[in-house]
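Researcher: I'm preparing a figure for a lab meeting and need a structural model of a single chain. I don't have an experimental structure, so a prediction will have to do for now. The sequence is pasted below. Please return the structure as tokens so I can convert it later.
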Amino acid sequence: MTVGLTATLALDSGENVMDDPALFPPRLRPFAEAHGRALSTLDTTSLSWAVLAPPAGFGTGHEQHYRLVAEPVTREQATAQLPHALYARAVTDELVTPTVHSRRVVVVPA
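Model: Understood. Here is the structure written out token by token.
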């Protein structure tokens, strides 16, 4: 399992978060594109993998519960507020009892 990057999430509009300069600084696009290539590489392997991406509001909020949402995601889901501790719980839960297989999800407040 790996930690994902919000910028590479596919939105339900057909774009990625990084395509919207209001959501992601264009100067950081090469970094995001590199993460996107890593995901494409995972798709070509026979490994059992999962990517858990935090939303853009990572590190804020006071929510107590989370849910995992597969792509494409709404703009609201991609920009949700999620405390660090809740994201850490989602990662730990997924390590102990895997539910995501060969795909990427975003961790959002429930």
